[in-house]
Amino acid sequence: MQRTILHIDMDAFFASVEQQANPALRGKPVAVCGAGARTVVMTASYEARAWGVRTGMSLPEAKALCPSLIVVAGHHEWYTETCRRLTAICRDYTPNVELFSIDEAFLDVTDSLLLFGGAEAIARAIKTRVRHHLGLTASVGIAPNKLLAKLASGLKKPDGLVVVGPAEIPPLMERLPVQELCGIGPSTARQLAEFGITTCGALGRAPLALLVGRFGVFGRRLSAMGRGEDDAPVRSEGSPAAEAAEAKSVGHSMTLDRNVWDQERLERYLLELTGMVGRRLRRHALAGRVVTVTLRYADFTTFTRQQRSGHPMNDDGEIYRAARAILRAQSLTQAVRLVGVSVSGLVGESAQESLFDDWRRRRQLLAALDAVHNRHGDGALMWGELLAHNRRQGIVISPAWRPQGLRDYS
Predict the structure, then answer these.
(1) What b/e sequence results for 122-140 when a residue is b if at least 16 CB atoms lie within 10 Å of its CB, and e otherwise?
(2) Separation CA 332–CA 329 (nearest Å)
(3) Which residues of 109-194 form beta strands (DSSP E)?
(4) pLDDT: which is higher, 366 or 250
(5) Which sign, positive or negative, has the C-alpha torsion 357, 360, 366, 370?
(6) Which end of the chain, N or C, is less surrounded by CB atoms within 10 Å?
(7) CA-closest candidate to residue 309, choices 299, 330, 328, 323
(8) Which of 104, 237, 246, 272 is catalytic?
(9) Contact yes or no for 261/332 (Cβ under 8 A)
(10) Do domains 169-226 and 240-387 have the same CATH topology?
(11) What pLDDT score was predicted for residue 235?
């Protein structure tokens, strides 16, 4: 049976949420950014895009293009809550919902078509509810697979609805530039162009041996993409595939307001990050044996170092001591612009249980601290060492964020 996949893509999501929350911003050129000194444009409203403002631009670049640009610091909590509400709407039409990012979702509605009157009826119903209940617009693509559904949702933005049926696939792919497909970035597009392959039609006809020889296993995937073929399932939250992908590691990273070489300051960042990682591990009753520290230098050179423990851990203090030991073992060659900490080798929390009284007291203390954070937010309690240096970096939403489960950072 041919699948029917919907791709829901919210229009100018961060900026639209800000405009919905603040009527004074509606109809104005708006750029959403972080709060740090290094901030760039996270999303621009369509009014700002008309001036050429694009995601990833520095604020000076954006303001040079659009002198009347209104810059607002983003609100993480607004976006995540809106995403939760969007996900709830989608699940009214199928349980097979995969959140692709905070503003995108795939729905497999194959088994829901008869119940709701077809794919277009489902798409229009979702768009109507998004407009009425969220005050936002969404573009929807309908196709036999995820690759084409995502492509279709971007063809008539904003507030579009595009259906790509089997008969439309060959003519659509024939002239479509390869970089229009999700999964083909600038580097891959450049390498394909070296073989004279610039369109999906040419990609689909290219000798498989040529693609495999240049790209390895990915060459087979590229060949299928060129023909508009994609058998990837919609991985709904809670499915075995989603849970397996989710449980590999838990981590946080931050880009610093300015480059830092001072060891003491870097250790303060580690202390903050390990607290966030520890709380998420405990929230999901997980512990891990491997602590990884990621550092990115001023020239964007990035490296990671790991330390393996003899036992699984989710105690902030243990994670911090391991991360600090990793950092102190490094001879920094440049100032650092990004710091990250993650824990992997995950097992259930029960695997680390101990009979010692001091361990039990420590667990009771952590449970009490977690209860305060859960009720009053991450800033409710913090180490005294961090108190004098506390600052908010603005919105930092990982592509792995999910409205529930291990990736829910809230």
Answers:
(1) bbeebbebbeeebebbbbb
(2) 9
(3) 138-143, 161-163
(4) 250
(5) negative
(6) N
(7) 323
(8) 104
(9) yes
(10) no
(11) 85
Please, which residues have CB within 8 angstroms of residue 64's CB and are 6 or more apart in sequence? none
Rounded to the nearest integer, the mean pLDDT of the chain is 86
Average pLDDT over residues 30-55: 86
Distance CA 33, CA 42 (A): 5
Q: Are strands 30-33 and 70-73 parallel, antiparallel or unpaired?
A: parallel
- In whole angstroms, what is the distance from residue 309 CA to residue 405 CA? 25
- 243 classed as catalytic: no
Antiparallel, parallel or unpaired: β 30-33 and 286-297: unpaired
Instruction: Record the pTM.
Output: 0.72
Asked whether residue 370 carries a pLDDT value surpassing 70, the answer given is no
Q: Are strands 138-143 and 161-163 parallel, antiparallel or unpaired?
A: parallel
- CATH class for domain 240-387? alpha beta
Residue 37 CB partners (closer than 8 Å, separation 6+)? 257, 258
What is the DSSP track for 199-211? BHHHHHHS-HHHH
Domain boundaries defined on the chain: 1-163, 169-226, 240-387
Classified by CATH at the fold level, domain 1-163 comes out as Alpha-Beta Plaits (3.30.70)
- Is residue 410's pLDDT more than 50? yes
Three-state DSSP at 38 gives coil
pLDDT at position 244 over 50? no
H/E run at residue 9: strand 5-10
Measure the CA–CA gap between 319 and 392, rounded to whole angstroms. Answer: 22
Residue 410: closest CA among 320, 274, 271, 280: 280
Q: Which fold has domain 169-226?
A: DNA polymerase; domain 1 (1.10.150)
